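Contributing: when you submit paired examples, paste them exactly as shown. First protein:
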Amino acid sequence: MTERNLPRRFGLTVLAGLLAVFALLSVTPAPGAKAAGASLSHPSVNCGANATVAFQWQQISGGTVQYLDLSVQDGSFAKDTFAGTPVTGSSFTWGGLQAGAIHWWRINTNTSAGWQPSATGTFVPCGNPQPLTVNGTCADANNANIEFFWAPMAGPNGIQYLDISQNDAFSAGFQGAGPLNSGVFTYKWANVKANTTWYYRINQRQTDGSWKASPIKSFQTKCGAGGTGGTTSASAAASTPSGSPASYAPTGPAGSSKEFNPNVYGSNDKLTVPGVATGSRCSSAAPVNVRDVPSNGQLGDPTNDCDVVRYDFKLFPGYGGYPGDGGATVLAGHVDYSLAHEGGTGAVVAVGQYWKTMKKGDTIQYIRGDGKTISYTVQWVSAVPLGSDFDYSTLARQTGTESLSLITCGGTWNAAAHEYDERNVVFSLRS
């Protein structure tokens, strides 16, 4: 049997309602990425409570096994960053995907010469196109050649335009490249003025004639005499929906680069649940680390079996909180943990394994790094089926009462999808 890297047994869906998620109305499938492996076509989607995406590709000859790999973290497909499912033929439909989130996918085929991955495709199901990166090289001291990358909407949809402007509201005129086919996700633009801040967006037209625009990002390529240099910096600018003023607040991690941290970072806080067991390798007070929630609302994974993650919703006004300071605190932990991540075999019980045994009236204690202990009383415990219409955003939405929620996986392990079919949710209010 050929071994493949599988993700940790965790994978929260995007918090529904944190972002404006729009129904997709149009489509024309377009050819997608090509490489030595399978040739990908642009996916199409049906939108409901969750997104159901239909994938298609052209197989390569000589393949014995195919996997469809899917990631919402990035396109590197590094260990523990993606889910993979075995597929046959040249199509597969994957339900329960995260509406509005950027997805990367590929087909990995095992042949007599080894694994042959396709090029990587990217798309956003049931949402707006999303900018990714900008690369620039100097043509001369005053001009640069720019290559843009973005995630287009999944089909069915219409043509796209890439717009650039020196005004973040695009109110003083702009240049547009297009029309581009619906599945295109990169464009090279020659002789863009260097040493100048530019703003760009992707606009995608639907069959009813309406447009969906990406968030606006900025970039600048610094070029010196003789075309030297070529350092390109890119960041999110104000995302200005139609009818909104240019001062509309930034809504992306790059837009708050001084505050947003894409990596997990530590704290001196701990979580304890009196009378409830913890993971097999965990103490009664589990360490709490922090993950900032990016603009797509995706909740990042805990790092190991004993790690509890507190999610910081700094990009989402009106959401999130910190124990003792008010708001709605959301925490997550693994239910179990594969020792393969440490080079071992088997699995261990993780910190969230026994959260599902909690009941109304139980106590949760959050021990802050400053020594304060904040107590909460459990109001309800629920097993939420994956793909249900449960609105996770209610857990993070600030109300007049301080709350704390615990989320972990539950139910039955789905080996084909590489995830559990339920999420266990514990909701508590400050005592």
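Second protein:
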Amino acid sequence: MLSLFGSLLGFGTSFLPSILSFLEQGQKNRHQLKLLDAQAKHAEVLSKLKVEELDAQADVSEAENIYKHATELAKANKSSFVSALQASVRPVITYFFFVVFGLIKGLAVYVAIQEGDDAYQAIINSWDEESKILFSTIISFWFGQRGMKAIRKAMK
């Protein structure tokens, strides 16, 4: 009986190294999966950062090219009047827009008061959400595209 038990024990323990190596391999595989998952998350974060970096580089490049083009135009013009005229087109259009905008809003307030509305309420009503958006867009155009870019990202 003891010899039978010894034989069974010897036969059973011969599989023990295989079982232990199988369990060890399973643990290594789980570790590898966790490592690969962490690497994938890291790669995803890096790719997002790279895209943001490329966007920033494109913005800088665009601004540099705009200034370079304006400088080349100014140098190419023999007449200082033409250079000044080229440089003043956008500001003059903006001034004109604000004058027209002010006149329209002023007339809207005037008409509302003529119809019996309170002056304060007429002013508040004329400064609606669309006016705020339009006004902030124009100001942002003149004082940098970064502000509008941040607003666009927030709206997504």
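If you have annotations for the second protein, write them as plain sentences, like these:
The chain is about 90% helix and 0% strand.
The chain has a mean pLDDT of 81.
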